[in-house]
Amino acid sequence: MRIAEIRATPGMLVFLVVQPAALLLIVLHSSADTSPPAVSRAVFGTLLTAFWAVTIRGTAAVLARDRAQGVLGRAVTGARDARLIVIGKGLGAGLTGIVAIAATTLVVLLLLGLPVQLSHPGWLAVGVAAVLVSGAAAGLLLACLFVLTRHAATLSTSVIYVVYLLGGMLVPDRMLPWAVRWLCYGISLRWLQEFLAGAATGTVDLRALVIALGLTVAYGVAGALLFERMVTRARAEATLDLF
To answer: pTM value?
Structure first.
């Protein structure tokens, strides 16, 4: 259902096509290094950055729309666990996003005449699956905040651009100031970029994958616990559908 909703939303074209194409062109043209490792890092950094925007926008937009339509209370107090609904919608948004963004990225690379190297397709598939699960877990964690406020769209925009700058995907972590560099190590997509870029060029970095999966589990557990508490608080204050 979430996939159908995204396909019917014209505005998502910006996040699925325009943004990844623009980011990839900027990153590639700002670097003189066109070696396979450098291109792979740029490609997966762009893909994961655009994926992050789709995932967060998908989660925030769904909850904001439910609140505006007066059905958020029913959605989080029904017979089915609301956390499963949020995760399901997050997976739907993530799957749609990663397929569309990957297709856009491939078209840009072909138009530029840059080689596409996929040395370990099996490990790449594992990495993509980890990306989807990690995005859903992060969406559940951030949904805790979206339930409490009617400003979900504004909040999601802030979260998106903070990760753009400090996530280590578009801007390498070595270029970040020491005071904020440590923040990128707590972002699972940063480690997944390292794993995917390595797998594409022939190096399987299992350490990066394990760290990303560990962070994903932490997101999921924290999100599951906090989401229930936030919903309980919102119900007690009778604010779910009053904004």
So the answer is: 0.84
